[in-house]
Amino acid sequence: xxxxxxxxxxxxxxxxxxxxxxxxxxxxxxxxxxxxxxxxxxxxxxxxxxxxxxxxxxxxxxxxxxxxxxxxxxxxxxxxxxxxxxxxxxxxxxxxxxxxxxxxxxxxxxxxxxxxxxxxxxxxxxxxxxxxxxxxxxxxxxxxxxxxxxxxxxxxxxxxxxxxxxxxxxxxxxxxxxxxxxxxxxxxxxxxxxxxxxxxxxxxxxxxxxxxxxxxxxxxxxxxxxxxxxxxxxxxxxxxxxxxxxxxxxxxxxxxxxxxxxxxxxxxxxxxxxxxxxxxxxxxxxxxxxxxxxxxxxxxxxxxx
Amino acid sequence: xxxxxxxxxxxxxxxxxxxxxxxxxxxxxxxxxxxxxxxxxxxxxxxxxxxxxxxxxxxxxxxxxxxxxxxxxxxxxxxxxxxxxxxxxxxxxxxxxxxxxxxxxxxxxxxxxxxxxxxxxxxxxxxxxxxxxxxxxxxxxxxxxxxxxxxxxxxxxxxxxxxxxxxxxxxxxxxxxxxxxxxxxxxxxxxxxxxxxxxxxxxxxxxxxxxxxxxxxxxxxxxxxxxxxxxxxxxxxxxxxxxxxxxxxxxxxxxxxxxxxxxxxxxxxxxxxxxxxxxxxxxxxxxxxxxxxxxxxxxxxxxxx
Lengths: 305, 305
Known about the structure:
The structure is a homodimer of 305-residue chains.
Chain A: H1 3-22, H2 33-43, H3 50-61, H4 70-89, E1 98-99, E2 102-103, H5 105-109, H6 111-130, H7 139-156, H8 161-173, H9 181-206, H10 211-238, H11 241-244, H12 250-253, H13 259-263, H14 265-282, H15 292-302
Antiparallel strand pairs in A: 1-2
């Protein structure tokens, strides 16, 4: 598959994922209308929908067929990703005015409403994921949904994404910044990789994959997330504002130490390459031919480098 | 039961509830230590543990026996209540420096970490509640846990607590404030009553109560919450700083219209009385004698008036 083919197919997949996500957005009506508007604004402000797409590809890799229970989880993971961005952009956190070229949620709705919108999205993610129980009526089916829910909560929580944000915020607020390789890897693995692990693991779980295959997805997700974040560090230093749609070097300006500032560009690129190869190996499935998940991983990690 | 007996038994119940809640608090270690510290500080900063206590009493009212699945839900509802206070106190929201006589979470850990601690508590609430699946192995048992989870998420979300906070924040930020009785009742019902409904409904559900009994608990919770909030409005106007441990009239000073400012003290007291009687009637259960839940409701609503 050529690079253009991958990009085209990814666009199609993103459009499909967005159609699915839209079905689970809250209605904008009643006295709680404003928080629903702020939630919907945040979710629909763009984004590549990579996590729901990865979830669906993992589902297909393990021969999942009935997608009814998968769809609520696709929406749920995007809601969690979105809430994390809304809160991360707040004045009390990164204080960013723009994301993807649009005013951030707190610039448009105020910091109080943006706080509530983030809370609303996290809560709504679970409300949405619980809908999956309605589509899996057998014991085994219900057990798969429970397993998927536990992955969703675990990887988004303080032993996952929030843990990474805590370490990141702490390093940023302290004079010394990130001090060790362990700390930097912890941040990248949890702030970014955890939600990619979650996406792949949930897709496989809902397809009924074996425990060791779900574990493979976890390992692949970790490598993808780490590579993706190192790539992001490289782009943040060398990137172009129009491509990224955010302030160039904003992380660096905030005094954050990154993988690049710690290891240099050449080593960072080499590590990205190695992680990418490992992730592609782990997502081979049973087929002989290269699958779209593998193409997607390669594209995610190597684009614009 | 005398008033002193109720207060003594409530103290015992609160101590028991706190022992249960402590078991589910996160460990304070690793690179995410600070967010765990902020979460634990917030949960352990005091509070009457009314929601977990109400949950347990409803469980007992419907002859629940095996508490193993109940305990994670008792902790979960307290985590959700606590996160809502942490975020509500933030500078971007009510900007309160003290709660229950102690520095608020953002005064102690900074607004960024307090935002993460709130997020962490909401996410941890679901992680904790999912543990209940391990203690209900039959199909019917698992179905009760799913029902309880849905109540938990629904009542905490934008059609419950967050919806109430949205309307409250919006009214506060606008010159006009709360304009109609419908809007005021919406705020009280959702910001306060929803989580009390949740507590009673989950207790009954995990005890295996019939659908109509769970619905009764919902109605009782609505009346308790509404009465409790009107009572709070009365105390906010007339109360004593040392008893409440927060700034007197802080709501009124913020320009919020309350039930009292809208209807006057006399009408407010009359409505509290009526709601209290209805709630006590709804929680009679099958016994002839007055139960502790009824004593507790009376105490909650009429104390210090």
